[in-house]
Each structure stands twice: as C-alpha cells, then as structure tokens.
Amino acid sequence: MKLELKTDRFYHLDTCFCPLNEKAALVFPPSFTEKSFNLISKFFPDLIIVNQHEAMDLMACNAAAFFNQSVVLHRGSVEVNRELKKHGFEVLEVDTSEYMKSGGSVFCMKMAIF
Q1: Phi and psi of 94, rounded to 5°?
Q2: Residues 6 or more apart from 68 whose CB is under 8 A from it?
Q3: Bridge partners of 110?
Q4: Among 39, 48, 91, 108, which residue carries the largest CB count within 10 Å?
Q5: Tens digit of pLDDT per residue, the chain (114 long)?
Q6: Does the domain at residues 13-109 carry the CATH identifier 3.75.10.10?
Q7: Active-site residues: which are they?
Q8: DSSP code of 51?
Q9: CA-to-CA distance for 62 and 104, rounded, in angstroms?
C-alpha cells in the first residue's frame, strides 16, 4: 500500500514524515489521508506529532536521523525538540533557512553513501 498525501503543501513524503528508528517517527497527520495515517501508526507505535507551525514554517519533518539516536533538523522547533529529547534522541539544530527557500531542509541536503 502507498502512503497518500492529501494536500499540495506537502508535496513529498519527507516534508511530513520522518522515520527516526524502527519504532519512532515524526509525522504531520493533516497531510495524510486517514488510511495512510493509520498505516503509519501501525508500523510506528511511537509517533511524535508535529504541529502545523513547526511542520509548515520550520519543516521539522524534513529532518534526518542517524544511528537511532541523533536527529538533525532546522533550528527553532521547540515542541518537536522537547518531544525528541523525551524519547531519548539527541537534537542537533542547524540553520537551513537559505535552503528552505527552495522547498527543502535537512533531509534534502544529505547524501546517502552505500
């Protein structure tokens, strides 16, 4: 089954969903159909719900998680940062404001090396 986005504002999965480890993920529920959000909830029991401001203005879901312990995201997401720390993650904030002008943030700037 595919995850369905229901708004043009969230044009890629990485703008509204970020898996952090095998159990936890950042998610902005209003961007998904009910069926898709239920599927995410089934596979990730520890969801960190991102509020509208932090999802839209700060692109908190466009983050990157490393080694199941560190999460790099654009600076300023106070509520998401608090929740990440409660879940045992180290939070590393960076300034991606110039890159955000093109519609991306941390996730879009990383390069996978295999």
Answers
A1: -135, 160
A2: 20, 21, 22
A3: none
A4: 48
A5: 689 999 888 888 999 999 999 999 999 999 999 999 999 999 999 999 999 999 999 999 999 999 889 999 999 999 999 999 999 999 999 999 988 888 889 888 877 776
A6: yes
A7: 12, 108
A8: P
A9: 7
Q: What is the dihedral of CA 60, 57, 3, 17, to 10 degrees?
A: 0
Query: Going by DSSP bridges, is the β-strand pair 64-66/70-74 parallel, antiparallel, or unpaired?
Result: antiparallel
Report the amino acid identity of residue 68: N
- Give dist(CA 114, CA 106) in Å, integer: 19
Rg (CA), the chain: 13
Give the type of residue at 106: V
Nearest of 86, 45, 39, 84 to residue 61 by alpha carbon: 84
**CA gap 102, 74 in Å, rounded:** 14
